[in-house]
Structure formats: structure tokens, C-alpha cells
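User: Predict structure, ligand zinc ion.
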Amino acid sequence: MTSIWGTAAVLAAVIAIVALVIYSVVRDKKSGKPACGGDCAHCGRKCGGRGS
Ligand SMILES: [Zn+2]
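Assistant: Predicted complex:
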């Protein structure tokens, strides 16, 4: 049962990446940037951003 540690390591890495993505999205929202990166002319405001 050593392979469980490999699985746990992969899982931890995935969780870390997801957390980083969520954090960056939240940070962008707080700074007034929509989730699409401000390109609402192309995203059709699906991101829920204000657009320009
Ligand atoms: Zn957008």
C-alpha cells in the first residue's frame, strides 16, 4: 500500500492548483476585474463582469 502516497501527492497538488486558481479569481474580482480577464466583448458577459 505504498501507491496511496503517490495518489495523495497528486491529489494535494490538484487541490493546491485549484485553490490557487480560485484565489486568483477572487483577487481579480476584488480588484474589479471580471473572471474572463476583462474581455467581455468576446465572452458575451457570461462571466458576469461589468465589461466595458
Ligand atoms: Zn467577461
